[in-house]
Amino acid sequence: MKLLVVGASYRTAPVATLEQLAVPPADLTRTLDRLVAQPYVAEAVLVSTCNRVEVYAAVSGFHGGLGDICAVLAEQAGCPPAALANHLYVHYDVAAVDHVFRVAAGLDSMVVGEAQILGQLRDAYHSASDTDSAGRLLHELMQQALRVGKRAHAETNIDRAGQSVVTAALDLAADLLDGDLAGRPAMVVGAGAMGSLGVATLSRLGAGPLTVTNRGADRAVRLAESYGANAVPMAELVDALSTVDIVVAATAATEPVLTRDVVARATARRDAGRCPLVLLDLAVPRDVEEGVAALPGVEVIDIDRMAAILADGPAAADAAEVARIVGGEVEAFLSWLRGADVAPTVAALRGRADDVVTAELRRLAQRRPDFTDDQRAEVARTVHRVVQRLLHQPTVRVRQLAAEPGGDQYAALLRELFDLEVPQTSPVDTVPDVVATDTDGRSSFDALDFPPTGGAR
Prior knowledge:
Elements: E1 2-9, H1 15-21, H2 25-36, E2 41-49, E3 52-59, H3 62-77, E4 89-92, H4 94-105, H5 116-130, H6 136-155, H7 165-176, E5 186-189, H8 193-204, E6 210-213, H9 217-226, E7 230-231, H10 237-241, E8 246-249, H11 260-268, E9 277-281, E10 298-301, H12 303-309, H13 316-367, H14 373-402, H15 408-418, H16 444-448, E11 453-454
Parallel strand pairs: 4-11, 5-6, 5-8, 6-7, 8-9, 9-10
Antiparallel strand pairs: 1-3, 1-4, 2-3
Helix pairs in contact: 1-3, 4-6, 4-13, 5-6, 6-13, 13-14, 13-15
């Protein structure tokens, strides 16, 4: 099996496309089941956040795996696969490992270095584990990716730049409100992970009074009580909006919560000459209806706007140090992967040796029935010991060589020399013998018209 990453992010797709691709929590299990039901996809982890939707997969062939994954993503988005081609990126083999580790380290985040992605990756991994869509390869990949992310934050100063998306958005909001959020009345719409982070960050910055609203009133009450905020029902959203200057919107709703009508009625009740109402839309799909930004006295900061403003990123030295860590960890993972690939061959060789020894001892017993039990046991120990010593150095060495680039050749040579039958768990060729085709005879890959990044370096 080989690793394949197919995804879209704020770098390659507008919010509208990410909204189409986004997989709500209620659909996650169904989508994972759909992925691993495809003929070329053996394992899958799905990451769906406010600024990325990515599938990490173990596939038996590049073209077939790409076609399978794109078909599922297209089904989720409600469009033909070709319509997604300009917004998707593809990483294969080495480049797939590199991408996943860069994501975990925060190098691919909108706010470079932010640590929130680690929690999102952990949740995605747990969901895949719960549905049995993650197998041995993705278990190892995700565990190592989470470790790499923690190491990047522990060993570098990337945290200086790695503020959360919420903090970055509130920094932008502060620029629109004379540079200070202290004492500014604020509201958070949504009581999930992002909403909780919004309340915590606003509280730390001294904003207040704080109001929390959520479709599930109980969660809003619990979150509000934790920070001395007020909880209001969604039915009172217009009244609550009219009293605040800042709104962090981060729900999991599939339709906009802050519609043009709701915001227009709220702003009509605000005092004339008051500062603009700043809406931070951190949800995908969007919580703020598209037409709201055109209303007078309203400023909307969404994912698209943040991506444009935050394009410069953190200090180059911090990012370069994290990139160095990622590079070393990628090589270490690939060494493990190559070593794991040779393990079945080594096991088959030892199994063949055991079979030969067993057959010879049985033949000896027939030819020398006069041997006592002790004599037979001593001969058996001696023969096994000789075979183990003969095989020890070659098998240790082949494991070492297999961990180096091109090491799979040594396992192949062993199989050829000893005529070993090994279950096909080793990586397949980059181009499979059979390529999934569309009804017009074109391969799914050809229809999408973009090449992979990755393969041997």
